[in-house]
Amino acid sequence: MAIRLKKKSAPYGVKVPERKFSEKSPIEPAPLPEKVVIPLQQNIGAPAQALVKKGEKVLTGQKIADSDKFVSAPIHATISGEVSGTTMLVNPPTGQLVEALVITSDGEDNWVELEIPRNPESLSAKEVLEKIREAGIVGLGGAAFPTQVKLSPPKDKNIDTVILNGCECEPYVTSDHRVMLEYGEKVLSGLNIIRKILSPQATYIAIEDNKEDAIKHMEELIISLGLGENFRIVPLKSKYPMGAEKTLINMVLGREVPIGGLPLDVGVVVHNVSTAKAIHDAIFEGKPLIERVVTVSGAVKNPKNLLTRFGIPIKALIEYCGGMEDKANKVILGGPMMGIAQFDLDFPVVKGTNSILVKEDEPIRERDCISCGMCIEACPMRLMPTLLARYAKDGRYDECKENYYIDDCFECGACTYTCPANIPIVQYIKVAKKEIAKRAPNK
Amino acid sequence: MSEVSQLLVSPGPHLWKKLSVSKIMYLVVIALLFPTGAAIYFFGYNALSVIGVSVGVAVLTEYLCKKLMGRVFIMDGSAVVTGLLLALILPPLIPLWMVALGAVFAIAIAKEAFGGLGHNIFNPALAARAFMSISFSLEMTNWVAPTGFAADAVTTATPLGESFIWTADRLSLYQAMFLGNTAGSLGETSALLILVGGIFLIARGLINWRIPTVYIGMVALLSFAIGQDPLFHILAGGLMIGAFFMATDYVTSPLTNRGKIVFALALGVLTMLIRRFGGMPEGVCYSILFMNAMAPLIDRYIKIRPYGLVQRVKGAS
Fold this sequence. Notes:
- The structure holds two protein chains of two kinds.
- By secondary structure, chain A is of the alpha/beta class.
- Chain A is built from 13 helices and 17 strands.
- Chain A has a six-stranded mixed β-sheet, with helices on both faces.
- Chain B is mainly alpha-helical.
- In chain B, helix 2 packs across helix 7.
- Classes of the chains: A alpha/beta, B mainly alpha.
- Chains A and B meet through strand 15, strand 16, helix 12 and helix 13 of A and helix 2 of B.
C-alpha cells in the first residue's frame, strides 16, 4: 500500500492568498534575550503558580511554575539568570490580565541537568505521559491545550485514529512547514511515542499540497525509517481552514465531531507536527518546552523562521528581522485569519505563538448584509454566519444557540474573509458566545 | 509607549477577500450591458432615453433619500443596477415622466423606506414595474416592433399576447425570439444576450446557477406537461431576464442552496399558473414578487444540517 494516499479536496472553506514568504528560509536561532517575561498562563486550563521568588537564581529549563490541576502544564525558565520581579499582562486570546515572571539573564544560558532516560523505548505509557507533562508541553498549533491531557482519553473512549496535523493553512505562517523539513525525524519519532500511548489502528499525517516538499520529505523519511507499516500521508488541497481539527477529521476520515464534543468522541486525536517534535525532545533528550519556531513575516524587511525562547518580547524578533516597514501599522500574534492584533510590542512570545505577522491594514468599514450567502458557502461547519451575526447584533442569543448552532463555530473567520460587506461576523459570534456563557444557569 | 499607540487593533481576520459590495454591483452592471446593448440595438433612441432617465433618476433619488434621512450616501452601484434593471423591463414607448416616477418608487419606496440596500423585501425594479403596471396599464402594454434607430415605431403584440400572429415557420420564430427581434420590454427580448450576461455572472461566482436553471427548467417541464411549446415559453416574455437577473437578487432570494431550489421551483409553478390561467399574458414579475415575500419563510424552514448535528442529544447542553 502506498504511503501517500489520494489527495482530498474540501467542498467548503475559502481560497486565501498564501503569501508564504518565509517558506524557503531555514530555521535560524534568534538571539538569546537579555530579559524574558513569562506569563503564568500559557495554555487552556488552570494557570500555574510561581515556584520561585523575586531575587532567586534560575537555570535554563528549570521549572518555575506549576499547578496541581489536571488540565494544566508547568512552565520553565527559558534563560538562566535572576527572577527580577513580576508583572501583569493582557493575555491576547482572553483579554484577561495574567501574572508574569520577569527573568533577567546572566548571559550564561546555564541549563539544568537534563534527565535523559537511558532507554526511552522501554518507558511505560504512564511514565511517558508524566514526562510530557513535566516538560510543560501544550498543543503548539495555537490552541495550547495541555498535551498529556489530550493523550489521556477517558477509559470509555476508544481511540482508533491519530492524525498528525501539518496543514498550516493560515497564510504567511511557515513554522510547521520548516519543522517538517528540518526536524522531520524528530516529528516522526514524537508521533511514534503518541502511537505507543494511544495504540490507534491508523495514523495519518495530513499536509496541504502547497507544501509538496514537506510531503515528499516525510514520505521519504517514513520509508527510510521503516515506518511504512504504520503511517499514511494524506495530502489535502490547500484551502482555509483545512488545518482546523474538526475540518481535518472530516477531510481525512469523513467523521463529524458532535456539536460541543471533542475529537475523542469520534475516536480521533489530532496533534500538531511541532507538538510531536516537542514530545520527542522531552522523551529522548529530556528537554522541557522552552523554545519553538516562530514565523516572523509580512511587512518586515526579512521574513524569517526563528527558533526562539519563550518570553522574548515580540519587538525584539521584529527588529531582528529588519524591523517593520514604514507603512505597517498592525502586529498580529498568529496568522492573519485567527491571529490577534497586539497593542503592545513588549508582549512576549508564548507557547502558542506560531507567528508574528506585521501588516498594513485599514479600520473595518462595515456595511449592511446583502444576503449574498457567500459566508454560508465558506463555513466549514455548514452554519449560517450571516444570521448568527444578525441575531448576535440584535442580542437574540437564544436564537443563535438553539436555531443556528453557535456552539459549532470554532471562529476560523472564513465567513468574515469572504464577506463583501466587511461585516466582522466572527467578532459578533465571539461576543454572543461570551454573553451566552455569562447567562448559562449552571455557571 | 509612542509606537504602541500607533498600532491598529481590530478583530480578526486581518485579511479580506478583494470583493466589495460595490464591486459586485458594478460587475452586475457589466453583465447587464449585454441585454442593454440588445435593447439599444432593437429599440434605438427609445431605449437610450428610457435607460438614461431610469438610471439617472434612480441614483439621484438614492442620493436625496440618504441626505433626507441623514445617512451616508455611498455610490456603490446598487442604484445603477436598479435603474438599469427597471429600464430593461419597461416597454419602449413608455412616457419618460412615468419612467422617472417608476425609478423614484423603486428607490424611495421599495428600497430606502425599508432601510436601504440589504433590507428591502421586494426586488425594487420589479416592485416599481408592478406599481407602473397598475397605475399606467395602457402605456405599460403598448408594444412596438423592434426597428432600431431606423424607422418610426409600429405598434404590435408580444409573443405572449393574444393577438400575436407569426406567419413564417416555427424555426424563424425561435430564431427571432432567441436573438431578440420581437416586441417586448426593452431588455427582455434577446435571450442570447441575457444568457451571455448571466453566464458571466455565474462564471464569476456572483450568482448561483441553481435559481435560473431550476426556474427555467420548471417552466419548460410544466409547459410540456400542459401540452404547450416549452421552448416558446422559455424564450417568450420576461422569463430569461427574470430568471438570471431578478430572481437571483441576493437580498430578496433565500440564503441556502436548498432554499434557492425551492424558491425557483415555486417560481416556475407560479409563472406557468399566471401565464396559463391568469388574466395577464405574462407572470414573471408577479411570481418573483410573490416569492420575494416568501424568501424569509423559506430561510426559516429550509436550513442546512450543520456539521456534527446528528450526534447531538436533545436536551443535553
